[in-house]
């Protein structure tokens, strides 16, 4: 297995797009969180601290800052998703997957080692969010606390879900441009249409919240205007249900990819 991991690293080490996209993701996490922080500070200053606190809450104060910055970071998970799609589709473009299997890799090893990048990029998302919390939380009006730190776990689960969807798209479609297009369509169009439609017709059951990707998104709540929106938004499902549902989807995605790689022609 160590040799397989080394070969996988050698494939990516000199791949410029990987480093550019990974760096872009980290920069965008800090940039997006800074924009949100600056806007909130500006609004609070104009309305007055007490009025702003009553209307907007304290999304950048501990413990809420954990949820806020993890929620914000979740909007950028499509970037590491692009990395995953590019890595797996390059295997098919340059036929390296065929060479690896001819050299003795099993098909299960081929798809399983790609999960390494899913985990690594998910950890990168968590680390970026953690550093953002430490940075922007220091400017809040409360002392540091680990209360609310579970949001990092929720972000990790959300990241795994996004990355596995990207890996699924790349494995099924095999063409970089088409896989990226379908990935974007699902994340930014189909996901919302499906969830909103199901929520509309299922009333209090809110089945749309249990759809792929949407279920892990629900782990992190909308962090702004909490005082103004209190009691006006539907209650999310229990956390254990969301975590269990996310795990089921991830297992399903892995099974589909495994079936695809085992039955498809090289």
Portion of residues in beta strands equals: under 5%
How widely separated are the two ends? 22 Å
Runs in which pLDDT lies below 50 for 5 or more consecutive residues are: none
DSSP E strands, number: 0
Structural class: mainly alpha
Number of domains: 1
Radius of gyration: 20 Å
Coarse morphology: globular
Tally of DSSP helical segments: 12
From N to C, what is the helix and strand string? HHHHHHHHHHHH
Overall average pLDDT:
89
Relative helix content? over 70%
The largest sheet is:
none
Protein name: ABC-2 family transporter
Keywords: Membrane, Transmembrane, Transmembrane helix
Transmembrane segments: 18-39, 75-94, 115-139, 151-170, 177-194, 239-258
Organism: Dinghuibacter silviterrae
